[in-house]
Amino acid sequence: MASLNSPLRVCRSILRELRALKGPEYKQTMAYNYVLEQFRKNQVTGERYCRAQQEALHSSLTYLCLLSSTRQHMALHNLYHAKGEISAEDAAGLVGLRLPTQPGGKGWEK
Amino acid sequence: MLRSLVALHCRIGQTVLSHQRHNVQQHQNLIHHLQNARCYGMASSERRKFYEDVSISQSEGGMFEINLDRRKLKTPGGKLFTVPNEALAIAVATEWDAQKDTLKFYTMHLSTLCNTALDNPTQRNKEQMIEAALKYLETDTICYRVEEPPALVELQNNEWNPVMEWIEKRYNVVIGSSSNIMGPEIPEETKDTFRQHLNSYNFWALTGLEYVITQLKSVILSFGMIDRYLTVEQAVLLSRLEEEYQIKYWGNVEWAHDYDMFELRARTAAGALFVQLASESSTVKRKILQD
């Protein structure tokens, strides 16, 4: 995604994001149809510099940024901040230790 | 005697168990009631996804509503969730559709913005919001320059000066930049020009615009982005310029720097999209082909 200059690249990237969100049946979602429709509508223009076209391109870049940054933010959150409380065994395992075991059970049990 | 004690124990255990089961049932009823009421001001961050399909429908008056599985979506304040145009409705529906298993409200930025605009929980009118937005101009990020280290000074001049020139030319105003702690002196005509410009946005767009200004900590960058001079990534980069400089010098910490950057990008993109969608109106004029 080096330089998203052309509308084709932006369109493809948005559809890729939608596929990452939903899965195999992303082609039936409303967003898919709407995005494709918008890109097709703004394709043909009689003027050399069509302001509506540029505005639509900017809006599509904004939406692409929204989708991709929420996805990456969620990924980082799940990777680093989502574990919550870890058990005593895992906490000990973080520094390479193990919990002590007492084969006969502790004194006050049983 | 032991046997009778054991029997007593069993009976007490059974009553305790059935009481617990009754409590669990009440607990489940409560959860069900909460989900039906959908008042997520309760701020319990783990709510299960209680719907399968998300669809939109148009009501009379031209407003669009979101349906989760036959039930209409409502704001936390209890009002019906309506949006003025279809694109915003589809985007919000996609957000709700993107949730898997649990609802993570902190990722649904567009829905949050719509809820704020509909409920107006702080009861503000347009003038108060414009004043709050203009307050950021006095402490705008672009206007605050450092004096050392020289690499950062040069970076700030190279990156921020073009934006400053653009906005001064576009709005015909004078905003200086300063490197002392008091900040630049903004003349009153500048503020009046901006006030007039902000007044031309409707209430929804103003909600989004103020959100963007609060996120980027800069009025100038927000205007640059809304007027389509900067992209979202560029605006976020310029807003975090000093941080990026420090990252290049000292190194990047993924779980802090990247995390913050993506969150800022997501929020800013949502705000920008919200403003643009709330203030657009599209008409289709067909050219009739004359033979």
Describe the protein's architecture and organization.
Chain A has 4 helices and no strands. The mean pLDDT of chain A is 85. The longest helix of chain A has 31 residues, at 51-81. Chain A is rod-shaped, with a radius of gyration of 25 Å. Chain A has one domain. Chain A has 110 residues and is mainly α. Chain A has helices spanning 7-22, 30-41, 51-81, 88-94. In chain B, helix 7 crosses helix 8. Chain B is globular and about 70 Å long. In chain B, strands 2, 3, 4 and 5 form a 4-stranded antiparallel beta sheet that branches. In chain B, strands 1-6 form a two-stranded antiparallel sheet. Chain B has helices at residues 2-37, 86-97, 109-119, 126-138, 150-171, 188-199, 203-216, 219-226, 232-239, 241-250, 254-278, and strands at 47-48, 54-58, 64-68, 71-72, 82-83, 102-103. By secondary structure, chain B is of the alpha+beta class. The model of chain B is unreliable at 16-20 and 24-43 (pLDDT under 50). The chains are: A mainly alpha (110), B alpha+beta (291). Chain A: One of its GO terms (cellular component) is mitochondrion. Chain A: This is Protein FMC1 homolog. Chain A: It holds the Pfam family Complex1_LYR_2. Chain A: Belongs to the FMC1 family. Chain A: Plays a role in the assembly/stability of the mitochondrial membrane ATP synthase (F(1)F(0) ATP synthase or Complex V).
